[in-house]
Amino acid sequence: MKKRLLAALMASSLMLSLAACGGSDTSTDAQGETGTEAQDGPYQISMVLKTNAAEFWQVIQAGAEAYEEEHPDLVSLDIKGPPGETFYEEQLNMIQTDLALESYDGYLIAPLQSDAVATAIASTDKPVVAFDTDIDSDKCLSFVGTGNKEAAKQGAKAAVAAAQEAGWEEIQCIEIAGVQGDATNEARMEGFREGINEAGGEFLDNEIQYANAVADQAVTCMEAIMNKFPDGVAIICANNDDMAMAAARTAADNPAYANTIFLGFDGQQSACQAVLDGELTMTAAQNNFDIGYQAVETIVKILQGEDYDEVVDTGTEIITQDNAADRLARFDEWLA
Hints:
Helix content: 40-55%
Strand content: 15-25%
Number of strands: 15
Structural class: alpha/beta
Radius of gyration: 21 Å
Shape: elongated
Mean pLDDT: 89
């Protein structure tokens, strides 16, 4: 291992101010110590996605690879992910395998199960940076991603305003949620709940539908909602765009849901097109390209003994018909 990395880790272990990863919405600077020995080649970094089979994660990968292409002498990435976001054991096996290899200088991890990953990294002496979802471990030096609760809250408040403009007098919201127990899912749910209730609507906790973050299960959930609420619901919010679009399409021929506000989360390309086409009302967009780019940038700073942020919030944008075209144009640049 490079001497500069050992120096940085020893310095950071003595700092009382170093917080567990991802537990705060406020970024603070953590001081590293720059080594004196010259770098002997690009840092070898293992990057484990939640899945490599979805557009959201492909954009994150594009951001990471953009940093790698700009800094070929600094970093070399090995990017991988399981087939889907419920393949917990597969992802954990990938992480454990890479932790056992001496060839890696550090790890970028988007955990499917944060507790299990925290246990897996407990004995590593190499830096870990979490992205998209935090890891509550002193071995995780930084978290890079969206403030999921705040982003969902912003989206929820925008949805209430849209429901009011659409003429709804009783503004109730039902969530089609992701994977029960997942930290990101819970943060978004809390944000949706707070945003709806603070804006004057009512988040129906007893009506939450879990769809495991996949579209086909969201169809079943939306059918159940329409059966139970034949007169319509003002707002349907979903933990991701795939579920939101599936729900909106399922309800498209139901006149009672003609003015329902369908709110997604992620801001993926297909969702932006659906918003532009009037199929989806809005989505709380993550800057996922920046998540990938800044995750790599952050671990390089740590390895070089530079100052870095313990929390890097890459921001949120509420996508409506007013700005959907602009975001679609950015996708053309990201995925070129």
